[in-house]
Design brief:
The protein is mainly alpha-helical. It is built from four helices and two strands. The chain is 60% helix and 7% strand. It has a two-stranded antiparallel sheet with strand order 1-2. The protein is elongated and about 110 Å long.
């Protein structure tokens, strides 16, 4: 009795996996051997399959990937975050998540601009400190 319950449970699990498989697969061709000759028949595909695709209107927003890569050289911390958000824009758009794609593009642009500004500020401060240090250095002859 327990063995039969185990087999029934196994069959039930197999049937659940069979019916929940995604995407639906084409049935395998059938091979028939008749009088020592191999005949192959293509199995018919199910006739009631409906494919639904979302319609994408317009073009995806600018992902600012070039600006993000450039900003990586100015400030790598903000640049990495900008590159990550820029990379997510196109995948969000393909999935139909248009609002999230626009938000990711906006974040990528913001982090890229912050990285460039931070990099410029660091360069200017570095130049100023070097000039001040050079002027305050005593002259030894």
């Amino acid at each position: 009795m327990q063995c039969q319950r185990k087999i029934n449970l196994t069959l039930l699990i197999f049937q659940a996996q069979l019916y929940t498989a995604y995407p639906p697969q084409q049935p395998a061709p059938q091979v028939i051997i008749h009088n020592n000759q191999v005949q192959q028949q293509q199995a018919a595909a199910p006739a009631n399959i409906t494919i639904v695709r979302s319609v994408q209107t317009g073009s995806p927003p600018n992902n600012y990937l070039c600006l993000s890569i450039f900003s990586f050289f100015c400030c790598f911390i903000f640049g990495i975050v900008a590159i990550i958000h820029a990379a997510m824009v196109n995948s969000y758009w393909r999935e139909g998540r248009h609002n999230e794609a626009r938000q990711a593009a906006s974040k990528a642009r913001g982090f890229a601009i912050a990285a460039v500004v931070f990099g410029i500020v660091i360069i200017v401060l570095n130049v100023v400190f070097r000039v001040v240090a050079a002027q305050n250095q005593p002259d030894y002859y």
